[in-house]
Amino acid sequence: MIFDLLLQAGLILLGVFMFLAMHNIPQKFLSKLRYRNRTDLQAKRHFVLGAQLIAQARSPSNSRSTATSLANKLKTKPTKPSLSTPKTPLLTS
């Protein structure tokens, strides 16, 4: 009798976990937990993109006009995500 109840409980739990796994519910929940602090993520992305543009502008294989256009592109990028992080104080000039 007890064995039958444990077997039924196990099969029900297995069915529930299979349903959750098929509908990607654990991945969706974990991604919400992972990206709770979006400002930090945006600031990191902003700095990575800026570093990539600087590296492209400094590359010796680029001509001077390409380097100038990349530098101008870097100047026109908005700096709002880098200033919105709570870890960096806002500088007023």
Automatic annotation (TrEMBL):
| This protein's UniProt keywords | Membrane, Transmembrane, Transmembrane helix
* Regions of compositional bias (Low complexity) in chain numbering: 79-93
Q: Which residue stretches does the UniProt record annotate as biased composition, category Polar residues?
A: 58-71
**Annotated segments matching region Disordered:** 58-93
Can you tell me where the transmembrane regions are?
6-26
The protein here is known as Uncharacterized protein
Q: Which organism is it from?
A: Populus trichocarpa
